[in-house]
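User: Fold this, then the next.

Assistant: Folding the first:
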Amino acid sequence: MKREHKLKIMAFLLSVTLWYFVVWGKPVERTFEVPIQVKGALNQQYIWEINPSTVTLKLTANRNDLRKLNKQSIQIDLNLSNYPPGIHQVRIPIEKLNLPENVKIKEVTPYYVSLVIRKVSIKKIPVKVIFKEGPPSSNFKIIINPGSVNIKGFWDDLQAIEFVQTEEVDFFELKKLRVLNVKVLRPDKVLEVQPEQVKIIYLSR
């Protein structure tokens, strides 16, 4: 009986060991969403855009190795200093991924991303005050300080813009206070307006 009992225990241990190697040693797959990290600073006159900005990696390894894998250690770096202004199709540099030796890449989606680098232009244009309601008479004068602002964006988008508007101004409040600081509205496709506020001064004729 003792011998049979020992044999049963040994058989059980052997089956557990085999199960462990089959389950934990068998390669499995796992998918990771990895953001593209940008390196190599561009001149402030340029703006870049990457589409898509993340890459899907399908990795294969045994369960234990994948469980130990730190997602934060998986990085895809793109050096912008290697590319001139324009539109580029850039291959994902999977050979530079810092992965453990026993973790393999099965699939990369997408394999190429679109990189757009465009030059930013600056245009100086006048500011136009917008009143909530039309002034009751024209017997007044206003001074806008500064009277013009700089808008920043891509030149193709800036060419047609002749002026910028303020947020709506209450004429009677302006007449009462004499001076108001108001926000300048940023037109569509304009990246930046400087300064963002102007001072409106009310003067009686």
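Now the next one, as you asked:
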Amino acid sequence: MMTVERLQKVIAARGLASRRQAEVMIVQGRVKVNGILVTELGTKVDPLTDEIQVDGKLLSARKEPLYLLLYKPIGYVTTMSDPQHRPIVSDLLTGIDTRLYPVGRLDINSSGLLFCTNDGELAHRMMHPRYKLTKYYRVTVTGRISEADLKHLREGVDLDDGFSKPEQVTIKKFTATTTELEIVLLEGRNRQVRRMLAAVNYSVQKLVRTQIGFLRLGSLLKGKYRFLQPREVTRLRRLVGLS
């Protein structure tokens, strides 16, 4: 019996791109199925028998899924290529010949935990707000944050792309000139933590993402990566509704 799946899901499952990126490819007219151009999202295909081409290249068979955690240092951009020729996070994935994609981003001036995979379906779900995957950030700001500003931050702030309310904000340490905070978010908007703090008039000196869901930096060194243990993969997939 023929088993059909959405085209963007099949592309993501083959490790070529995330599901969202696959949707963009389809709409841009870069995908053909059995030689016929497809631009409609939701088109269903048989992954076993249909021939799928992206940018004129035949989509290879599904690759073994890989899951790893990378400690991104400052100075690297969270992309797989960069027109400005800056260092990219894939430069750090030495010894891996499978194309992996980072789930979410950290800006070039931030460091910390990145989850990378070629499992497009898992990546899509991890970024979807429905599954409420928490992200933890350790942030150092200039100045001693006041109680009023802390209350404002906890209650949420208005940003250019909408209201932003953290799940939790905790003061970890004061010095004479700085405040160290832990901020927990469910969302992952562009430079969200920095913009939230700017909204209450604090500039960020240092920002490190320390945790995604139950996955922690732990003893991982900057610029290094480790593969997830099978039990971690199972737990993560269950968290986002995958068996």
